[in-house]
């Protein structure tokens, strides 16, 4: 597997945009503002999840710096190579003791076959989430981001995501506070493309596309 990121875009995107523009007045206005931009998946599953652990609770800039240092340590960024790393070297790259434990647990899950990467194509979203949250340091939000950004599943609604809740508040409720049930009600019109709608709601807050 080459280290160059391979960008993939979902084949359902155009159909999703047409569907959402018909079903939702806010998205009908938002979607044309962002031209051809759309969701893109890069890298492999292990690298994507490792990056999400490294980036927890620190700024995007700090996360990139630590990731760049960490990524130089293993010969290749794969589970077996990460398991051979020395804790001291990982700490020197800027990783906390807790994040090192999480990365090792992630590598063990992949290396032992506890994670069924090849079966994900046929598994439902909730089944994959259940597998991922069995890894230390990965909660539901991270698993949902993985479903959206890596597996490009079309119908994920990450109700724990502050950006989504803020975006729904601003676009649908004139900035008033929004409950999870309010958000779920708005998103009912987005089925079966809730991931795509979520992506455009994020864009309405920050025009730069998010990538994981």
UniProtKB/TrEMBL annotation:
InterPro entries: Alkylbase_DNA_Glycosylase/TA, DNA_glycosylase, HhH-GPD_domain
Gene Ontology CC, one term: protein-DNA complex
The protein's name: DNA-3-methyladenine glycosylase II
Organism: Caenimonas aquaedulcis
Family of this protein: Belongs to the alkylbase DNA glycosidase AlkA family.
GO biological process: base-excision repair, AP site formation; DNA alkylation repair
Reaction(s) catalysed (UniProt annotation): Hydrolysis of alkylated DNA, releasing 3-methyladenine, 3-methylguanine, 7-methylguanine and 7-methyladenine
CDD domains assigned to the protein according to its UniProt record, in alphabetical order: ENDO3c
């Amino acid at each position: 597997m080459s280290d160059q990121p391979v960008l993939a875009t979902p084949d359902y995107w155009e159909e999703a945009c047409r569907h959402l523009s018909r079903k939702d007045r806010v998205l009908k206005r938002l979607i044309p503002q962002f031209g051809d931009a759309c969701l893109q998946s890069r890298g492999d599953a292990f690298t994507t999840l490792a990056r999400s652990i490294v980036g927890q609770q620190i700024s995007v800039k700090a996360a990139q710096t630590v990731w760049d240092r960490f990524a130089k340590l293993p010969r290749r960024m794969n589970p077996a190579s990460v398991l051979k790393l020395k804790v001291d070297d990982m700490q020197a790259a800027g990783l906390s003791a807790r994040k090192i434990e999480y990365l090792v647990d992630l590598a063990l899950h992949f290396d032992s076959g506890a994670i069924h990467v090849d079966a994900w194509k046929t598994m439902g979203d909730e089944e994959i989430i259940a597998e991922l949250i069995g890894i230390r340091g990965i909660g539901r939000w991270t698993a949902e981001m993985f479903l959206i950004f890596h597996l490009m599943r079309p119908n994920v609604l990450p109700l724990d995501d502050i950006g989504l809740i803020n975006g729904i508040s601003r676009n649908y409720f004139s900035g008033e506070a929004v409950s999870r049930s309010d958000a779920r009600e708005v998103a009912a019109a987005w089925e079966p493309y809730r991931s795509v709608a979520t992506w455009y709601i994020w864009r309405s807050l920050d025009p730069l596309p998010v990538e994981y």
